[in-house]
Amino acid sequence: MHVIATAGHVDHGKSTLVRALTGMEPDRWAEERRRGMTIDLGFAWTELPGGLTVAFVDVPGHERFVGAMLAGVGPVPAVMFVVAADEGWMPQSAEHLDALAALGTRHGLLVVTRSDLMDPELALEEAQQHLADSALGRLPAVCVSGATGAGLDELRTALAALAAALPEPDPAADVRLWVDRAFTIRGAGTVLTGTLPGGRIAVDDELLLEPGGRRVGVRGLQSLGQPVGAATGVARVAVNLRGLPRESVGRGDALVTTGRWLTTTVLDVRLHPVRPGGAGGGPEDDLPEQLSLHIGAAAVPARVRPLGGAGDIEPDGTRTARLTLSSPLPLRIGDRALLRDPGRHRIAAGLTVLDVRPPPLTRRGAATRRARQLAGTTGTPDPAAEVNRRGLVRRDELAAMGADPAGLTAPGGAGTEGVLTAGDWLLSTDRAAELGARLVTAVAEHDTADPLEPGLPTGAARRALELPDAKLLDALLRHPPAVGQLVAREGRIRRAGEAATGDALPAAVREALDAVRAELTASPFAAPDAGRLAELGLGPRQLASLVRAGELVRIADGVYLLPGAERAAVRVLGGLGEPEFTLSAARQALDTSRRVAVPLLERLAKLGLTRRTEDGRHRLAD
Ligand SMILES: Nc1nc2c(ncn2[C@@H]2O[C@H](COP(=O)(O)OP(=O)(O)OP(=O)(O)O)[C@@H](O)[C@H]2O)c(=O)[nH]1
Ligand SMILES: [Mg+2]
């Protein structure tokens, strides 16, 4: 299916044409038919030559209903632009053209109707001239009469050609259905309608209703008046939602795929002049601070703050601005939208969304720096550039921004274009270098402050660098400048190669160790007592660091021997010549005190080198 919106000045014959083409009544309301005027959006559809089905979204032409017009054309990729032969180009022709140009609509057909009332040539030439001066450019054109039916076959053929030339939307795209109508059906509950631009909705799907993020289930689905199990964009759909009160939804809300969209009230955009060259309504004209943002079927008051000065307007008249919305919208990089000035009844600018999670502008000069940073960006999503600009960003958040990082990086390794992956996170090589340098410094500072416990605990390292995920620490250790300098071991980030050599022991501790070592070499089981340890300046922390460094083994509280003391003890005890021996015999053989002998024998038993006999003696293991 294809969807085409109408556009054109009030009373120029849009609805009459839709009626003639489809046999359906686009003016649904009695009031519309009584007044002969479209007030709200109308929907109708037909099959075209060649078998393509086309649905029309018929918009009102009256200036008062421009909000409805914008909600109608917003999500629709193509337009049937209608001009009355007897009236020619009129003010709402111009405003509708401005709106289409600003929204980026590029597919269309010009229809000059009411040709039974006047020769259409003049109106046709005039309209083509206006189109040529706009971003749309000249369009294929047909002259018809909705009253007599003249030219309608030709119009059908032209519509079929237009529909066939429309780009194929992605059936796997994330769903964002802008609600253009919401109503209640007795017995079924709340129904929303909209133009699905791409992606797929199926019965029993669970979606989110934005703003608000309310979970909603699809109870039923219709397309072109028929129940369907699923609908793939582009399509007109009516969605019956489970358990949703009618008053909690309205035009401009959006039904979106769960977890795939970010809603935002602050965004950075590129403003486009409505008309090439900028004459009349270009963003370089004085832009009121309060405007109305229109995207899809939504209209939201927006505060506009141009970024940078007059010098930051690019040669094509575009410039960047920050918008603050009065209510959140699900937006993505690359979205097209427009700003309307309700006070002056004009389209003020078109825009392309550049960033839906922009940095706050707090410091002086931040707005100008931001303008420079965004200069040259077009809104074409560039995941590598986004990662580089942000430094650190979650994968799913980047995808939700509209810059899907799939394929950007090889899992677990250095990616292309300066992007590193770490679990769910993407990290720019620049940020990795900066964080890595900070980590090297933090570890060095830690080791200076606390030489007895070398290595910065990983938790402290993460906090110091404000890393949201431990995997980022691993990524930093794999890349310059940390790689080769730092290693992770036993829960700490350590200077590479250091703990193994014991270099980190302070000189005083090293001297004390030398003394202990000399004494224990002379008398291997005469562990220095508390007085001696204190004399050498070896407190609990120093002793613990010597144990960690593998210089001493701890037999019990306050009892330290040289590494290998257990094996040496077994050798001595084996020399007793008795398979079983008492504690006292062992103490004498080892030439030590009970203070050492008791825990040492306990330790030998624990290591399986000795065992206790039933009568409380000790025996070497076989
Ligand atoms: N003679 C003649 N009258 C026409 C033709 N098309 C429309 N009309 C008349 O023009 C008037 C407006 O037609 P509509 O189709 O309602 O115009 P519209 O563009 O839908 O108007 P809005 O939706 O209110 O903007 C009606 O009185 C129609 O009968 C035509 O081809 N020939
Ligand atoms: Mg109408």
Topology summary:
Blueprint lengths: L1 E6 L6 H9 L7 H6 L6 E6 L5 E6 L7 H8 L4 E7 L6 H13 L3 E7 L7 H12 L8 E3 L8 H13 L11 E3 L2 E5 L3 E8 L3 E3 L3 E5 L3 E10 L2 E2 L2 E3 L2 E8 L11 E4 L5 E10 L17 E6 L2 E9 L12 E12 L5 E6 L4 E10 L10 H9 L8 H8 L1 E3 H7 L17 E4 L2 E4 H21 L6 E2 H8 L4 H8 L8 E4 L2 E4 L2 H4 L5 H16 L7 H7 L3 H9 L4 E4 L2 E3 L3 H10 L5 E2 L1 H8 L3 H13 L3 E3 L5 E3 L2
Magnesium ion binds next to helix 1.
- What structural class should be given to the helix and strand makeup? alpha+beta
β-strand percent reads 25-35%
How many H/I helical runs?
19
Number of strands: 33
What gyration radius follows from the Cα positions, in whole Å?
39 Å
Q: Which molecules are bound besides the chains?
A: guanosine-5'-triphosphate, magnesium ion
Mean pLDDT: 90
What would the principal axes of the Cα set say about the shape?
elongated
How far apart the termini lie comes to: 87 Å
Largest sheet: 8 strands, antiparallel
Percent helix, as a range, is 25-40%
Task: Give unreliable regions as ranges.
Answer: 279-284, 411-415
